[in-house]
Amino acid sequence: MAKIEMVNRRLPEWLTIRLPKPDTIQQVEQMMRTARLHTVCESARCPNLPECWSKGSATFMILGDVCTRHCGFCAIKTGKPLAVDAEEPQRLAEIAKQMGLKHIVVTSVARDDLSDEGSGQFADTIRALHATIPYAIVEVLTPDFKAKTWCIQRVVDAQPEIFNHNIETVERLQTIVRPQARYDRSLAVLRKVKELNPAIYTKSGMMLGLGETHDEIIQTMRDLRNAGVDALTIGQYLRPTQRHLPVQEYVHPDQFKEYQQIGEEMGFLFVASGPFIRSSYNAIEFSRRVMAERLAKVGAVDS
What we know:
Layout: H1 22-34, E1 38-39, H2 40-43, H3 49-54, E2 57-62, H4 88-98, E3 103-108, H5 119-132, E4 137-141, H6 149-157, E5 162-164, H7 174-177, H8 183-196, E6 201-208, H9 214-226, E7 231-236, H10 253-266, E8 270-273, H11 283-302
Helix pairs in contact: 4-5, 5-6, 6-8, 9-10
C-alpha cells in the first residue's frame, strides 16, 4: 500500500484563495434551502462559485448530502443517508430554469445503501431537466455505481449530453485516496458508457499533489484516453481540513500547462488543467462544443 506522510507547506502565491462574495453565497444558500436542494458549489464554499454562476453553470448534488463512503480527500459528511426524495428531480429542474442555467451539472454522494446505487434518481433528474429546459446541456458526475452495467445503462438511457466520472488519482494511490473505489472499476464505467452510447461525451478528472509522479500522471491520462474519454480536468488537491490527506506538492501552473498540452496531443477533445480547475469548473466551455454539434445535427435534419 502506498504511504502518504504528513507535510506542512505554505500556500504558494499562485494559490491565493479567491473567496466568494458573502452576498453571493447567501443568495445561493437561501435559494437552495428553499427548494430543499444542495450544490457542491456552496457546500464547499468553492472559490470558483461566482465565476461559474455568472456564466450560467452550477453543480447540483442529488440524493442528499450524506455519503456512504469515506474518501481521504473529500469534505462531504459520511453516515447514514436519508431516504430518496422522489420530488427532487423536478424541483431541481424548476430551480435550474429559474436561474437561467445553460449548463447543469448533476452529481451525488455515493449511495451504496441503494440497490440501484442512485442511478434511478440520476435518470429521473436528467429527464426532468430535458423536459423543463430543452436546450440546456446536462452533465452528470456520477459515483462508480460499483460498475453495475444495468445502473450505468439506466443513466445512459436518459441521454445526458456529458457523462463524467472522476478517476481522481493515479492507480498506486487509489487505496488511500478513495479506499472504497477502484482504478480499474472507474475505467470500466467510462468505457461502458461509450459502448452503450458512443454519442455521449465522457469526461473524467484528476487531482495532483497527493504524491503521484510525472510518469504516473501521464499513464493515467493514457488509460483514460484508451477508455474513450473525451474531456479531462486536472487540478490541484487542497486539503479541506486537518482530518484529510495532507498535500504533498503544490504543482506549478507551468506544469499544469504542460499536462494540458500532453492531453491535447493524446487526442482529448477538451483539457482543462490548472491549480484552481475542478471537475465542474468552466464546464460551460466544453458544453459549447456539445451545443455546436447538437445544432449542426438539428440543421442537417431540417435541411
